[in-house]
């Protein structure tokens, strides 16, 4: 009897000890998890799948170079025949990853977004396309550091077009930056890049810091010594968005050409201003969106790099180019499921006489669409697009497009 009781007591003691050890081990594991860097971090994943069908006609040449979305500078001009192209793709589909962490400094966040408009794939078999980085930035306190929309661009005023970008007169730029946002202000140091028309064979465009694009006689240079400086004030409004932004830029190049002062580098300083607004119309969700942009150093910021920021003259001097662009767009809500958008846009450049006749003088565009959303996050729509490009030599070309889109967010 005593022997059985001793064995029972021993078993209970061993069991209690094992239970205590397991409890302690579990407590240690929980404590270790709580002390990991991700313990106070929330994760989010989202994006959308977007499938587009385009039927495109160019009045003055081959439209294949711009058959997926409206790129103003690629509208063909001066061709003998019009062309029609049909295209399907899902390259605008995108995914984002987002984190928010509670730290001693307050909330710290990260955001990464990709789409599939990278290097071209093979449409003969797999229609695969490369991943492309859109956004990659961190946020803490009043700072945003990394790649995202330029502070000069109020993305909230962009029209709801089915076309990938939309109006030719819009600002549209994503780039690496350091942004400080106290209150209603934004101040940013952003990645620079200078773009030029080139009128002289004496300017060597084959240097390592210059890349020649597909428009003959033009080049872009990575020779800047200072960032693009941007300040934006976001006006407090009860509904919608209203902002004014100012930008100062250095436009610079260097290469084998030696100017009269014996310097191989030239630079000039210019500015840009952007006024952007989105204002409600009525109380059913309809709104008007608009931008007015201008300055003598707009360059790549306007019309999807449709103009260059400056002209390199025969003697190597830089002449900045005055440019202006904008749009107005009206969104009408017909019902909870149906809505329409009408967008009118124009941009123009006051090019110097020395610019070649093939340089763009102006662009115009119109977008009109009808969108049906039978359930939340699903958009089915059609859009009519018209684009026009006029050159300095008087030549012009038009692009006509019918686009159908299905888009499902997640």
From TrEMBL:
<dbReference type="Pfam" id="PF19577">
    <property type="entry name" value="DcaP"/>
</dbReference>
<protein>
    <submittedName>
        <fullName>Porin-like protein</fullName>
    </submittedName>
</protein>
<dbReference type="InterPro" id="IPR045748">
    <property type="entry name" value="DcaP"/>
</dbReference>
<keyword id="KW-0732">Signal</keyword>
<feature type="signal peptide">
    <location>
        <begin position="1"/>
        <end position="23"/>
    </location>
</feature>
